[in-house]
Every structure is written in structure tokens, then in C-alpha cells.
Amino acid sequence: MSTWMVTGGAGYIGSHVVEAFRAQGIGVVVVDDLSSGHEAFVPADVPFVRTDVQDREAVAAALDEHRVQGVVHLAGFKYAGVSVTRPLHTYTQNVTGTVALLQAMADAGTTDIVFSSSAAVYGTPTVDLVTETTPTLPESPYGESKLVGEWLLRDQARALEGTSTPLRHTSLRYFNVVGSGHDHLYDTSPHNLFPLVLDALVQGRTPTVFGTDYPTPDGTCVRDYVHVADLATSHVAAARALEGGHDLAPVYNLGSGDGVSVRQIMSAVASVTGTPFTPQEAPRRPGDPARIVASGELAARDLDWQMRHTLEQMVESAWRARQAAEAATP
Questions:
Q1: Where is the NAD-dependent epimerase/dehydratase domain (predicted)?
Q2: What is the pLDDT of residues 232-250, one digit of tens each?
Q3: What is the pTM of this model?
């Protein structure tokens, strides 16, 4: 049985990827510095290495010790808006960290990597439906750092062509990841829409909409919203394809093909939670494009990508996990 390393495996998305590997009987080891992850999200029987991916020696040692076949690289600083005011931190975490990881993989002879990229690489697209060939024009240091990560994989793979340890890779461009596949795993980001809205309701506050003057039908941002468990399933599909020697595209959009506005999200939350409210309105946040909606056709063909959850089911699962976390808090 092969083993895969999940960097950032104690985080919201990473912990779901870990569970998806385990569900298919694939061994997994987690690397996370817990800067935003939670050790409680790592199953007790999963090896956990608490270190930053920039620690090349520690990561190489873990790759070697656990005889890791490949890496799902999710560790990084993921806040587009904050990256505008913290560009050096963003590049250090996302670019320097990826360089160190690739060096550690080369040291250990680890050949496969699935990279967590982002829709932020597209900036503000001029097309209604983004595809993998849509020009990349990132508008934040975060988006730029993710695009550089893709380039690093491409260039390292070229450099290792014809060697005994070639690099097989693909990058998955995420859109808005929401919901929960397990009640004990939930999004704790201080910047993502779902936790911001649900935290406000739990605390008796009125949720806030950031930006109501976008050139969209209702003035709020339009996004792809995809369920985290569906996302995790496609990570494992990508890992298995690479391990099996199958050719994958360099990048895939994990998109829904159908946009949802922030106001629509607010309405769904009010309906599911049974808490009617009129959201407060605040100015736009920096780095937030008006609309990004992507086709997931290529990923559906190669990576078992499907939208298996409705918007209401996404909200219901997120709310259930949030309530479980609240109940577990002393």
C-alpha cells in the first residue's frame, strides 16, 4: 500500500483530503505547522509531523521514513485580501515553501505531487465561464504566488525529465470551498464567507456583505461554491492517476459551472438555519474580483469531479459542523 503526504493536512481542506485517502485505504502522513490548522483534525492513527514545509531536512526525513509515494501540497497562506498588505509573508509561505518542498522531494526521490492552486490566478476574467486556457492575470500577491507555484512544478518536471526520479504533477485550481464532510471538521478561517456568516449568527450578530456595487445582477460577488468533500475526492483521484502513470493535464479547474452571489448565499443561510436576517453592507475587500465561475468539464473527465451537493446541502453541512464545534466548546 502506498503512502501520500498531505502538507497542511491539519487544515480545513487538508483534513478532508486525509479522510478521503483513508476512505480508499491509502496510507497518509500529515505535515503541518499548525499556524492555521488544528491537531485535533488529524486522526490519532495518522502520523503527524509538526513542521513548516520550509524545513527541507525535516520534510525530506518524513518522506523517507514513511516511504512516501507522492505529496498533496496544501500548506500555505491563502488569504487573497490580506496578501495585499502582507506580500512578503505570502511569497515566503507559498513560493519559498514550495521550493523547499520540491527540494525535499528531490532529496527523497519522491516523484508525484498534486498542488493546491487557486482561482485567484485568473484575476478578474473577461469571460463568463473560465476554462483552463483562460489567461492568468492574478490581481493579488496570493494569486501571483499560486501561479508561481504552478511554474515551479512545471520547471522542476522539465529539469528532471529523463532522470531516475522524474516529477509527475498536476495543479488543481480551487474556487470557493465550503461545507463539511465530517461534523468534526469545519472551516475556521477568519476571512472565508461561510465561517464569517455562521460565526456571526452563533454570536447573535448580523452577517456582513463586503461590496454591494459590483457589476453583477445583485451587486455582490458571484463565485463558484464547491463542497469540500467533492474537492477531496478529486485530490485522491489525481493522486491515484499520477501514481498509476496516467497522463494528466498540468492544471484543472474544480469549478461548478454555475455562479452563486453572496446575497444568494445569505438567503440560503437564513433559510437553512431558520434565522432570518438582513445582512449589513460594508465596502469591498481588496483583491476580490466581481465574478469567477469555471467549467469543471476537464476535471470531470479525468478526476472524478462532480458537484454532488446542492447549495442548501453545502450550507446544511457547514451549519451542522459549526453547531457541533459550538457544542464541544467548554
A1: 5-255
A2: 999 999 999 999 999 999 9
A3: 0.95
